[in-house]
Amino acid sequence: MVVAHSVMVYYNRNMSEITESRKKSNASALHEVQQTRNGNDREIVCGNFANLAQEVASLDDLEAEAIFILREVAAERERPMLLFSGGKDSLVLLRLAEKAFRPARFPFPLVHVDTGHNFPEVIAFRDARVAELGERLIVSSVEDMIQQGRAREEIGPRASRNRLQTVALLDVIETNGFDAAIGGARRDEERARAKERIFSFRDSFGQWDPKNQRPEPWALYNGFVQRGEHLRVFPLSNWTELDVWAYIRRENLALPNIYFAHEREVFRRDGMLYASSGSTQLLPGESLETRTVRYRTVGDMTCTGAVESDAFAIDDVIREIATSRITERGQTRADDRATEAAMEDRKREGYF
Amino acid sequence: MSTDASTSAPLERRALRFSVSGNVDDGKSTLVGRLLLDTKQIADDQLEHVEEASRRRGFSRTELALLTDGLRAEREQGITIDVAYRYFRTAKRRFIVADTPGHVQYTRNMITGASTADVALLIVDARHGVTEQTRRHALASRLMGVKNVVFGVNKMDLVGYDEARFREVEADLRAFSDKLPSTAITIVPVAALSGDNVVDRSTAMPWYAGPSLLELLEDAPVANSESLAFRFPVQWVIRPGSDEHHDYRAYAGQIAQGTVKVGDRVVAWPSGKSTTVVGIDRHPEELGEAAAPLSVALRLADDVDVSRGDVLTHEGSAPRVGRKIVATLAWFDTHAARPGARFWLKNHTKSVKARLDSIDGILDLDSLALRPGAVELKLNDLAVARLSTSAPLVFDAYDDGATTGSFILVDEATHETVAAGLIRSESGDDA
Question: What's the structural domain count of chain A?
Fold first, then answer.
C-alpha cells in the first residue's frame, strides 16, 4: 500500500469522546432560543446539528440510498465513470463505492478534471488515495488542452479556467465514450442544483435542459441514453454539507489538510480570501498577507476562497459549520456570484 | 427542561418526506420559504440574495418564493416549473421537502414529489377555495400511496382572518376528501406571507386551536417498512474473480421492505428455487441481521441462478409472478398512447419490453369513478390500464409493497419517462 501520510489527516472515531466534547462546548452557540410572537420559547437548533450519535444513526438511510444509486448506474450503463477531485464530497463517494462493490474492484474508472490551478496538496492526496484503493485514474488536463491548442485561456488578473473545466470534462467523456459521470454534487449546495434529478440526462452537447427533465418517481431511475448522450448521476443528492462531515467523522475518512486550519499567504478580493499561487496577478490595492485559514470547498485555486478559521480538527469543523450563517458556496465560490443564475447557466452548458 | 437539545429532544432516525403542491399563485413557494426562514434554515447569503433579487424586480417586500424558485424561467414567470428539493431540520427531526409545481402542465412533477412522500401538504387559496387542481392533487397524492394529507388554507390575511370563510373552505375540502379511502385529513388556516400558523401558532386567529403546520409535520408518522414481508430486488452480483476472493459471490441490493437474518430460508423469484442466507455483508462489516432500507450483499448457501431483476423473499410469502398486470397509470408525455403501443417497463431492478393492451378507463376527479371508453392516454391522465410484458415480472400490488408494486414506462425511441405505474391487486389474467 502506497500512502503519502504527510498529506493525509486521520481522526479517531470515538463517539463518547465527541459527545463529551460537545457537551463541554458552549451549548448556546449551537442552539438559540427564538422568542416567538405569542411568547412561547421554541428551541431552534441553529445550523441544526442535534447530537452525533443520533446524526450517525440517521446517516444509515442516506448511505443506503447512495449505495443503491451507485449500483444502479453500474448495472444500467456500459461505460460509467466517477469524478474524483480529492475534495470531501468525492472522498465520501469513494467510500460509498467501496461499500457498494468490494471485495470486487470498482466497475468504473475514476476521472479528474485538472485545471492546472489545483492545490498541490490536493493533487498529492488524490494520487495517494487512488494508489491506496488500487483503482484506475484518468486525468483530463486543461493545461494539456491549452498546450495542444484545443482550448484558449482567458487573460488578465481575473482569468479563470472555470469555463475550460467544462470543455475538459466533455472532452474526456467523448474521448472515452463514457455514458455516465457520477459526481458528488448535492441539492442543498445551490438553487439550480436543488432542481437536479438523481439520474440527470445530458444531450450530445452535454447540455442540461432544466425545464424538460425526465420525471423521476420513487427510486426508478431512467438509465436510457442514445450513443453520444450521457447521464450525470448524483448519489449524494439528498445529503447536506453537515451530513458529509458527520459521515467523514463516522467513517474515519482521511482528507486533504487544506480543509483544516493552517497558515497561508492570501490576498483579499471581492470580500474573499484567495491563496497566492504561481499564476496570481494582484490588482491595484491588493496585497499578500499571512492568515490562519481553511477551505470549506476545494476547487480551482483561482475561484475558490478560503475562510478564516481556527478549526484544526474535525470536531471543530463540524462545530464551525453547524453554527455558520453562510452557505459553503456563498462563502467560497466566486464563480456562483457572477449572475443570479450563474450555476444554472454553467450547468446548461455541461458544467458539473 | 434542559437547554441542551441532545438530551431534551431526541432526533428521529428517519427523515420525514413531504410534498407541497397547490395552484399557481396559491403561495406554495412562499410557504416553503416561510418554513425555512422561521426554522432558521436560511443562511445570511441566501437571504441577502433573495432580498437583492426582490429589490431588483421592484417588489416592495422580500419575495420568499425566490428561495425555492431557482431557475431563470421560474423567476421570470413567477411560477414553479420543476420539483425543488429542500432540506431542513428542527431539534426533533429532519425533513425533505419536494416543492412541486402547481400549473397543470407540470402535474407529472407533482406526481413525482408525491411518490416518495409521507405527507402531502396541499395549499388552497382561502379566497378561491377548492378548485379542480386541489381535487386532482389530493386524489393523485392518495393514488401515490400518501395516507396523510394536510390542507393549508393560505392567504387568511387576505380574507381578514375570517373564521366563517375558513369554515366554508373546510367544509368543501371535507366534502370531497372524505371520499379518499383510509386517509388522515388535517386542515389548517395559514398566512404564509406573515407566517401565521406556519411555524408559530397565529395570534390573529384565536378561533383556531389546532397545531401549526410545522407542529403537525414534526409529529406525523413516517412509513416504516421494516415490519412488512421481506423483499430484496437483486441489483448487482458481486463476483471479484480475484485469487484472494476466488469463491466470493454475493447478491447486492437495497432491502425494499422487511428484515433478513443469517440462516433464513429464502426463495429466489421468478425461478422459485429455495436456499439459505449464509452471510449479510455491508463491506467491510458482516451483519447477523439487516432491515429495510439498508443496502447490503447477501451470500447464499446454494449455487442458485440469481441475477439482476430477480427478487428474494422469505419462504411462505410469495410475490406475484406474471406477464400481465393491471395498473393505475399517471401519463406524463405530451405524446398520447393507444393500445398496442410498446415501451420499456422498469419495475424495481427489472427492465422488460411491455405493451399497452387496453385501457379500462380514465379516473374522474370529482366522483373518483372510472370513466370507461377512452381510446388513448393523454398528458396528465390518471387511468386504469392493462399491460403485458416480454418476460415475467416479480411484483406485488402497490398497497402491499411500494417498491415491487411500482414501475415507470420509458419510450423506446425518445427514452423519455412517459408514465408512472402502480400495480393493482386484480389479476391481469382475469380479462
Answer: 3
Angle made by CA atoms B351, B354, B360, in degrees to the nearest 5: 130
Mean pLDDT of chain A: 81
Residue B153: half-sphere exposure toward Cβ, Cα within 13 Å: 30
Task: Tell whether A155 is covered by a domain.
Answer: yes
CATH superfamily label, B320-430: Translation factors (2.40.30.10)
* CATH label of the domain that carries residue A215: 3.40.50.620
Picking from A46, A215, A240, the nearest residue to B108 by CB comes out as: A215
At A339 the pLDDT is 64
- Quote the pLDDT of residue A242: 87
Who wins on pLDDT, A191 or A49? A191
Give the per-residue pLDDT at B268: 97
Separation between Cα atoms, residue B206 and residue B204, nearest integer Å: 6
Pairing relation of β-strands B417-427 and B406-411? Answer: antiparallel
Does B5-219 match B320-430 in CATH topology? no
Instruction: Identify the three-state secondary structure at position A349.
Output: coil
A68 with A37, same domain? no
Residues of chain B with pLDDT under 50: 1-8, 431
Burial class from Cβ neighbours inside 10 Å (0-12, 13-18, 19+) for residue B62 reads middle
Tell whether ipTM is more than 0.85. Answer: yes
Rg (CA), chain A: 21
Can you give the residue range of the structural domain that contains A312?
255-336
Closest to A299 in 3D by CA, of A88, A34, A97, A153: A88
The verdict on A25 and A112 lying in the same domain is: no
Distance separating alpha carbons of residues B3 and B218, to the nearest angstrom: 19
Q: Residue B153: helix, strand or coil by DSSP?
A: strand
CATH superfamily for B231-314 is Translation factors (2.40.30.10)
pLDDT tens digit string along A12-56? Answer: 333 333 333 333 333 322 333 233 333 333 333 334 455 666 677
Axis-axis angle for helices B132-143, B107-115 (nearest 10): 40
The closest CB to that of B85, out of A105, A187, A345, belongs to A187
Report the Cα–Cα distance between both ends of chain A, in Å, rounded. Answer: 32
Q: Is the peptide bond before A235 cis (omega within 30 degrees of 0)?
A: no
- Give me the pLDDT at residue B245, please: 87
User: Could you tell me which CATH number the domain at B5-219 has?
Assistant: 3.40.50.300
Residue B2, pLDDT score: 35
What residues of chain B lie within 8 A of the CB of A219, using their CB? 116, 403
B116·A218 Cβ contact <8 A: yes
Hey, are the CB atoms on A192 and B420 less than 8 Å from each other?
no
Closest CA in chain A for residue B346: A220
| Whether residue A141 is found in the same domain as residue A174 | yes
